[in-house]
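Researcher: Next sequence.
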Amino acid sequence: MSLLRVATRLSGKGARTAALTSSQAPLACFRPGLPLVQRSFASRSMPRLGHNLEDHYDFAEFMCRMHSPLGEYVIWGLIFSTFIVTFGPLLHSNYYFTGRFLPKDQGNTQLCDDSW
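Model: Next structure:
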């Protein structure tokens, strides 16, 4: 704790913090240009509500497609691989048992009512 105390004294914030928190003169450090709210480590700023126009300037490389397309290729590869992993075995089993990948519309089936 003594290291923090020394650092606070050296930075000069200790005197200002002590003056603001003392009950003797709460408005002694009041300056018209500064806000009354004192920021601390866990304070948060007011939200800046933008309109996404900043993205065109902040992510110019992405918006102009100047980045490497490898990440996009990986995502599309995952999408197509899920399609292949899901429907590939179904189409293969249709081809194995019936000779065609997709059955004909209104076609006859190998299961008949009399076979039960």
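Model: Residues 5 and 14 are 8 Å apart (CA to CA). The chain has a mean pLDDT of 74.
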